[in-house]
Write a structure and sequence with these properties.
single chain; alpha/beta; Rossmann fold; binds flavin mononucleotide
């Protein structure tokens, strides 16, 4: 099994990254070959509308723009499992996530009849991390993020969405103007729940690779 994890958070070892790394550990434990990519390390932008992927005779599911994202798109289409993680920024996934998704989807979309060129099968585990509590998420974000996760149905596999609530955003809240957050409460939630989230991520890594 080939497993790819894409971190769509700019932070390399914080909440989103740790969940993705734990999922990869789970995948490795059942023999998968894994690769981890920090999206913010790559030099790329959204679709340039070059239309090369829509040329007659063009390779399907391939982005022709020559930059650091196109090889990642090839890797997604040839993986067995994709783990993708994004923090919630202002109620949505990060901007780099959207740029990536634009390129991924356009390269597999037929402009003849709007069908899906991709005929393979990639299971997807999507992690989202946020300041929001579960209650807030359920009320304001859940429907929206389930719909973002649905975009991955175009990869024809199982899609599993894992929301990780009320994360620790900074190590020391006293250094910042962040009075709307209660540091003690944040740390308590982190200490009690984040290890469970990591374990759940690990287990998802195992399950999607069976
Ligand atoms: C620019 C920015 C916008 C954010 N907007 C939201 C938001 O709308 N809702 C929310 O619950 N958390 C929001 N957060 C908090 C992050 O989603 C949260 O800290 C997340 O766990 C960060 O992921 P990371 O630790 O992997 O970087 C925001 C953080 C930043 C930096």
């Amino acid at each position: 099994m080939k497993v790819l994890a894409i971190n769509c958070s700019p932070r390399k070892n914080w909440n989103t990254a740790q969940l993705l790394k734990s999922a990869l550990e789970g995948a490795k434990s059942v023999g998968a070959e894994v690769e981890y990519i920090d999206l913010y390390d790559l030099n790329f932008a959204g679709c340039r509308s070059c239309m090369l992927c829509k040329r007659k005779g063009a390779e399907r599911c391939h982005c022709y723009w020559k930059d650091e994202l196109s090889p990642v798109i090839d890797k997604v289409f040839s993986a067995n499992v994709l783990f993708i993680g994004t923090p919630i920024y202002l109620g949505r996934p990060t901007s780099q996530y959207f740029a990536f998704m634009e390129r991924l989807h356009f390269s597999s979309l037929s402009y003849d009849d709007y069908s899906n060129y991709f005929k393979g099968n990639v299971n997807v585990g999507m992690f989202i991390t946020m300041n929001a509590t579960k209650e807030f998420y359920d009320k304001l974000y859940k429907a929206k993020f389930e719909s973002y996760a649905d975009d991955f149905k175009a990869l024809n596999g199982e899609v599993s969405l894992y929301p990780c609530y009320n994360t620790l955003q900074v190590k020391d809240y006293s250094k910042f103007n962040m009075a709307s957050f209660n540091e003690e409460e944040k740390k308590k939630v982190h200490d009690e729940h984040f290890s469970i989230d990591l374990e759940n991520a690990y287990n998802l890594g195992v399950r999607l690779n069976r």
